[in-house]
Amino acid sequence: MAQTAGNSSYPTAPPLRPSGGGGESPLLLRGIAKSFGAVQALSSVDLDLPAGKVTALLGDNGAGKSTLVKLISGIFAPDEGSIIWEGEPVRLRTPKEASELGIATVYQDLALCDNLDVVQNMFLGREIVRSGVMDEAEMETVASRTLEDLSVTTLSSTRQLVASLSGGQRQAVAVAKAVMARARLVVFDEPTAALGVSQTAMVLDLISRLADAGMAVMVISHNLNDVFRVADRLAVLYLGQIAAEGPISGFDPANVVDLITTGKSARLAPSQPGMEAAGKEEEQP
Length: 285
Ligand SMILES: Nc1ncnc2c1ncn2[C@@H]1O[C@H](COP(=O)(O)OP(=O)(O)OP(=O)(O)O)[C@@H](O)[C@H]1O
Ligand SMILES: [Mg+2]
Prior knowledge:
single chain; alpha/beta; Rossmann fold; seven-stranded mixed β-sheet; four-stranded antiparallel β-sheet; 8 helices; 13 strands; globular; disordered N terminus; disordered C terminus; binds adenosine-5'-triphosphate; binds magnesium ion
């Protein structure tokens, strides 16, 4: 990547412009299985994460959501199946390999450094250096511009220590860092779980804006209100298997609750184009 220390020309973040809708899926999962000892955390998981769309991943505690995120972000390797990135099967051996491909993960307990300020966090490991000296002014300009592009206006200064930021502001900094690193897929694990009402609204807005700019976005959430506000597509994991997946228009809160708690729903509309539902096999005569 070009964005390393010692580089004199820092490529600015891609402009956040509407991309005109969904596109191809940069990431496809096919036949993914992962077990921990006797626990089969995931089996036969197929999932597409299309560009320009927010895909929500739902499931009860222990359904396998975080395990799936860890496979996508290079923390675990699958026992079986393929991870296909931009048309090529890939092995993600480390989080660094995933991030170099363009996969960014925003965790609830974010990997930001409390004792550094916003700019330092955004450029950690990718500092702009000119003639052996860090170009603080340039880094501050690029950081501010990226936050502005994301319409993040609640930070009083990019020189604020991250320790002093609210949960929502920390998420915003983590997202801006991903945008600067030219992520093509951004994965959020429970982004709003610890946030208040206005911060939740800000983070959901940020999530929509990333998809509008053409990125593929995956969001894990237990909050159905958030999911129905922000998601274009929905996938439900039940005991490590995909119980249903498809466009959000094929779901409502009642059938989603059925799918989360039982893995099937008699109320699921089976005729949605692109809808794959385990539940439709369970129809009674
Ligand atoms: N590192 C691990 N070692 C052993 N078992 C694990 C490990 N990580 C996850 N598991 C098991 O795999 C299953 C899926 O866990 P996972 O954390 O993916 O669930 P989840 O859907 O994220 O749940 P939650 O909503 O509670 O976060 C669980 O049974 C869990 O106990
Ligand atoms: Mg989890």
